[in-house]
Design a protein that fits this description.
Strand content: 25-35%
Order of helices and strands: EEHEHEHEEHEEEEEEEEEEEEE
CATH class of the largest domain: Mainly Beta
Largest sheet: 11 strands, antiparallel
CATH superfamily of the largest domain: Galactose-binding domain-like
Structural class: alpha+beta
Oligomer: single chain
Radius of gyration: 22 Å
Number of strands: 19
Helix content: 10-25%
């Protein structure tokens, strides 16, 4: 989207640390086109935009495009530079990344969304912005237009079509379960025990579950951002969801690695419906190894539908922060 106001200048990027670059100032980017992308390494919508940003960097950095990914952490653990650096390497990001732990840059941009993209011309004025996923073709055309203002004789390759089948016209996108948080600050539980901030709560489960609601069993420490398993004893989380794909943001705490058993509709997840982080044991159980704080891809169903997901664990220290859901499928 193009801004109504023509003279909005790019604010300075205030960073606790830089990756893939020494610290830079906006005034150093005269006669460059600047794309600022606000992201978080646990955010599924951000992660889904990264292949396009990587391709724009590959195509246009040599023509004068500068991309700065501003990492604004949604969860406290994502302030740790080591985890952000690991994610940068895992996603193969080669453009400049600024760590915005205190939300200084976020506030300077008056930003409110993950992901959010702001495109500035050679003189540092905002010419285009987009919130959320999508609009990849429009964004690329705006990048090319601003580069041509600097070098009118540039010759570009064909624009990117689509890097995922679900981004193509004709993909079916359905109403989906909203993101579900598990910490007491933003969460909502179906159990009658509810939350007791800072306390260990013993949850009992019933057979009656409302959709789009998390239910617990076992003893869980109620933390502001997550539920943490408080005992080495059987426990689980369950949710009836509507989606094609399910992800969970989890951490092993100080335990190093924790195995979490994952079932769908009370059975091991079928091979064709498993997410990229799901494994199968010799006994046929489907599980995920939680070895660091990040988003884990658990389910990638062949078809959109309503299912019941259960995560079972008996190891103290497992922290579960959020479930996120993807709705689009190719039919």
């Amino acid at each position: 989207m193009r801004p109504k106001e023509k003279y909005i200048r790019a604010p300075e990027i205030i960073a606790a640390r830089w990756f893939n670059s020494p610290p830079i100032s906006i005034k150093d980017l005269k006669d460059k086109v600047l794309l600022v992308d606000f992201w978080d390494y646990t955010c599924i919508n951000c992660i889904r935009t990264l292949p396009y940003i990587k391709e724009w960097h590959k195509r246009y950095a040599g023509d004068g495009l500068v991309i700065i990914g501003v990492h604004a952490p949604e969860f406290t653990f994502a302030k740790e530079a080591a985890w952000v650096e690991e994610a940068i390497k895992r996603f193969g990001l080669e453009y400049k990344i600024a760590l915005d732990n205190n939300y200084d840059t976020w506030q300077a941009f008056a930003n409110r969304y993950w992901p959010a993209k702001y495109l500035f011309n050679r003189d540092g004025y905002l010419r285009y912005y987009h919130f959320g996923e999508g609009a990849y073709s429009e964004t690329e055309l705006e990048i090319r237009s601003l580069l041509l203002e600097i070098k009118p004789d540039l010759v570009f390759p064909q624009p990117i079509e689509f890097l995922r089948a679900t981004d193509r016209p004709g993909a079916s996108c359905y109403p989906v379960t909203p993101e579900l948080y598990l910490g007491y600050e933003r969460g909502r539980l179906g159990n009658e025990e509810g939350y007791e901030p800072g306390a260990v709560v013993g949850y009992n489960d019933t057979d009656e579950h409302e959709p789009d609601t998390v239910y617990c069993y076992g003893e869980w420490l109620n933390r502001s951002e997550c539920l943490e398993l408080a005992r080495d004893a059987d426990a689980y989380l369950s949710v009836i969801y509507s989606a094609a794909e399910v992800n969970a943001v989890m951490s092993p705490g100080s335990r190093g690695e924790i195995r979490v058993i994952v079932t769908q509709d009370e059975h091991p997840v079928s091979r064709s419906d498993r997410g990229s982080d799901l494994q199968e044991s010799a006994s046929g159980e489907t599980f995920v190894c939680v070895d660091r704080p990040r988003m884990y891809n658990l389910i990638k169903n062949r078809r959109f539908g309503s299912y019941e997901l259960k995560l079972a664990c008996s190891k103290k220290g497992l922290c579960v922060y959020a479930f996120t859901f993807v709705s689009c499928v190719v039919e």
